[in-house]
Amino acid sequence: MKKKTSSKTRQKNPAQQPEATIKKHSTFDLNLTKFELLHLRDLMSILLPPDGAETVSQSLAAAEDRSLIESMLWDKLCKLCKQAKLPMETEAPDYIVAPTSPPPMGVFQVNQDLQSQIKSAESGFLPGDEPEEVEQVEEE
Q1: CA-CA distance, 40 to 81, in Å (whole number)?
Q2: 46 forms bridges with which residues in the sheet?
Q3: Which of 41, 87, 94, 108 has the fewest Cβ atoms within 10 angstroms?
């Protein structure tokens, strides 16, 4: 959907204008079939474990500091789905990311270095993350 803007702009008294200017972002048209819209709705609503409280889309947006953008995009998508008479909310199917099989496991010999790393991890910090005041001694 392309946002239409007026070609006329209002002139304000320069003393009344805020210091920061608001940037207008370009918009682009995207024509979707009903099935493409359905796929996009499902893709944006895939739930993450352990409790499904967050979607993949929300998690990505939070990691990239784009939560507001994701929310606005979801609102636009919901409006289009309702316009296309596609099921939404409780009527739409839920999808979740989940393991499909146990992770591969193996048996390995534990060497002395690995045992010290495990002890370090148990003491509250990960290997390589030792507090700065701890002096590290290199083994020869």
Answers
A1: 10
A2: 95
A3: 108
Q: Where are the domains positioned within the chain?
A: 34-96
Q: What percent of the chain shows pLDDT beyond 70?
A: 64
Do residues 48 and 55 make contact, with C-beta atoms less than 8 angstroms apart?
A: yes
Would you call 99 exposed, middle or buried from its count of C-beta atoms within 10 A (0-12, 13-18, 19+)?
Answer: exposed
Residue 80's closest CA among 24, 34, 136, 20?
Answer: 34
Q: Give the whole-angstrom CA distance, residue 46 versus residue 9.
A: 42
Contact (Cβ atoms closer than 8 angstroms) between residue 42 and residue 74: no
**Do residues 72 and 58 lie in contact, with contact meaning Cβ atoms separated by under 8 Å?**
no
pTM: 0.57
Using a 10 angstrom Cβ sphere, with 0-12 exposed, 13-18 middle and 19 or more buried, the burial of residue 52 is middle
More confident residue, 106 or 4: 106
Which tens digits make up the pLDDT trace of 24-74? 889 999 999 999 999 999 999 999 999 999 999 999 999 999 999 999 999
